[in-house]
Amino acid sequence: MNFLLQDIGVLRDLLDLSLTALIISRLSRLLKGILALRILAVITALSAGHLLARFFSLQTVQLIFDTFLASSVVVLAVIFQTDIRRGFATLTRSRAADPDIEMSDVIDELVFAVAGLSQKRIGALIVIERAIQVDNYLAVGTDIDAKVTSELISSIFLPYSPIHDGAVIIQHGKLTRAGCFLPLTQNPEVSKSLGTRHRAAMGLSELVDAVVIVVSEESGTASVVVDGKKTDVLDPPALGKLLRRLVEPRWLK
Amino acid sequence: MTRANSQEWSGGVKLLSLLLAGLLWLSVVLERPGEVKLQVPVLVRYLPAGVGVVSPVPASVEVTISGPRILLCRLPFRRVSCGLDLSGAAEGTASFTPKESSFGLDRELKVLRIFPAAVSLTLAREGER
To answer: How far does chain B reach from its first CA to its final CA, in angstroms?
Structure first.
């Protein structure tokens, strides 16, 4: 009986350790980039320091380590607020998307517009807002508030249009703004061959959970950027399929 | 982030997560209370001037100490001794009971049992030995 209880104790400790590792690993994945890795290393060093200070009864050193460890939660929440917000938005996203006629209309119009712009090699940048509002990250722009139609999108991006040089924003299924400037990515690992339009798409998608469609002016290739990752889309049906997977009907209402 | 960098990052996160989890778990486990039994040498202290111990002093006493395991882990590497305070002692045979303070332990450590609980010593004037 004693052995059995001892075994349960070992199992409980193993479970405790595994779950802790899983929680830390999952929380780390909410954060992005090399900074998260460095911060994880610093917290590990602080924990090791706390243990050593406790073992050797170095009370003042332990006080310093404990203070840093206790305040690190708040510091991390401040540093990674956008990553945490985006991470939670991803967690709460429902997997099943109801078929919706209105949504289908918006996506069809977008696909049609992108296909046309790609064919004519006209650069375009289209932002579809999801759970996190994009307003705080947009500079300048012209308010529009119109129904999403392929004709409107195509005409906005025509080279002689005064607002062709920025991004078009789609919020709640409506085209709300055009000519908006987006924050550029600060990621040094992004390929130098990518232009400003792609960098802007990546920059915004690193801050919020929006889906950004980019049409390259040089190659006419359409790409979808989400969470700072670019996916090239080869044909309009693939773009439609991808958008239906990424955008839930509730974000277009 | 390239694919190779991403894999490296993922591996680094996994490794550091495991290491951090191990350290956190160790912090929790080592704070659990435990007990340890030690044989500690007996030292006679503050003997009044001109008085000496004529009976044999026991070499050691067995002491059971309880407290957080992290502090107990360090005890075998520390020189723990049982200091008998004879400052108020007079000639003759007397029994001395070691107190918790006799062991010079951390404040978080408690002495549960001492065996023998009391040490009997015979003191005499230096000239009378």
So the answer is: 86
CA distances from residue A224 to A134, A206, A210, A230, A232 in whole angstroms, order as listed: 17, 13, 10, 6, 6
Question: Is A25 in CB contact (< 8 Å) with chain B?
Answer: yes
Q: Does domain A101-252 have CATH number 3.50.50.60?
A: no
Q: What is the pTM of this model?
A: 0.57
CATH 3.40.1700.10 residue spans of chain A: 101-252
Spell out the residues 6+ positions from residue A174 whose beta carbon is closer than 8 angstroms to its own: A145, A146, A147, A148
Tell me the shortest Cα–Cα distance from A116 to chain B, in angstroms: 31
Nearest CA in chain B to A32: B9
Tens digits of pLDDT across chain A (253 residues) = 555 556 677 788 888 888 888 888 777 776 656 667 788 888 889 999 999 998 888 889 989 998 998 888 888 888 777 777 777 766 665 554 455 555 678 888 889 999 999 988 899 999 999 888 888 887 778 888 888 898 999 899 988 888 888 899 998 888 999 999 998 888 877 787 888 889 999 998 888 888 999 999 888 889 999 988 888 877 888 888 888 888 877 777 7
**ipTM, 2 dp:** 0.74
What is the residue extent of each domain of chain B? 1-31, 32-128
Burial of B58 (C-beta count, 10 Å sphere; 0-12/13-18/19+):
middle
Please indicate if any CB of chain B lies within 8 Å of the CB of A94: no
Contact flag B27-A51 (C-beta cutoff 8 Å): yes
Is A17 part of the contact surface with chain B (CB cutoff 8 Å)? yes
Identify the contact set of chain B against chain A, taking CB-CB distances under 8 A. 1-2, 5, 9, 12-14, 16-30, 70-71, 73-74, 106
Question: Is B16's CB within 8 Å of A48's CB?
Answer: no
Can you read off the two tokens belonging to residue B97?
């009971």
Q: Do A40 and B70 lie within an 8 Å CB cutoff?
A: no
CATH class of this structure's domain B32-128: mainly beta
